[in-house]
Amino acid sequence: MRSRKVIYLFLFLLAPLETIRCQGIRIISRSFFFTVLLITGLMFFLTGQGSGGGGSSSGSNNPPAPQSPSVTTNPADNITSTSARLNGTVNPNGADTDVYFEYGISTTPVTYPISTTPQAIGNGTSDVVVTATIGSLSSNSVYNFRCVATNAEGTIYGINQTFRNWSETISVKIPLGPPTSSITLSGSAWRAMAGTPSYICPDGDLVSTGNDFIYATRGGNTSTFWRYSISLNKWTPMAPTPLLYWVGAILCYPGSGDFIYMLGGDPTANFWRYSISLNRWTAMADTPATVYGGGALVSMGGDFIYALRGNNTTNFWRYSISLN
Fold first, then answer.
1. pLDDT in tens, 220-259
2. Is 275 exposed, middle or buried (0-12, 13-18, 19+ CB in 10 A)?
């Protein structure tokens, strides 16, 4: 760029000359130099000034201008009766950024009366995970919280999240036997879920199929069979068993496939298979002898189910699913 400007300057200085002679012969006139002057001035404007005057590139390597931060409020974890850890993700977007959390007991409208100590996370352009542990919470309460980030370009508030901190001791009524009976459950490790549609008799049983559902028998000389949805916390009556069952009526799921297997229980040799997709029971090959209280089933996956006969016996059997 500098060499071009020198040439333009040289031509400009020559422009006032009336002629240039070579060995006594006139070879260039004044009008020619005026034309050159006009052209060089135009070129200087278009190339010299238009390029920024410094001869450098158009600035494609310059860093992007700082922006206000990007903020995401993530769910809380490590929740106890008096404390919790709040989580968020923040991108400073090129400006020095401070992050903090606002929180408070749930109200309508939502308010955030308490703030955590701000944390400086720098001026990078990548996501940064931020956390803050809060304490002195009121037990068994619902809390609102959000992540907040601020820099010179602005303050951004993340969306609201909620959590509930259960009390260390809770008392719930759980049906046990006849509807008039109950027990008291204490401790934050246990939670009361939706109760079964009717009370459970001796030898009611549960089995999980590894997805959203748990299947249950009521026990006690009934044919009742239910399905529980974990996501909905809801019980649904399913097809009843072919015959009444009693103690020793045990469920087993072999780890995959469409079928749940069940011993008919004391004092029968009944062995049934339930189709999950069809909601239908089918009688399978009877056990070698009647099963009593203490009967049990287990599967390690694959083709075999193992069974105990129960009731003061030493009988132990293996059932082949493929051979029935």
1. 788 899 999 988 889 999 999 888 887 778 899 998 899 9
2. middle
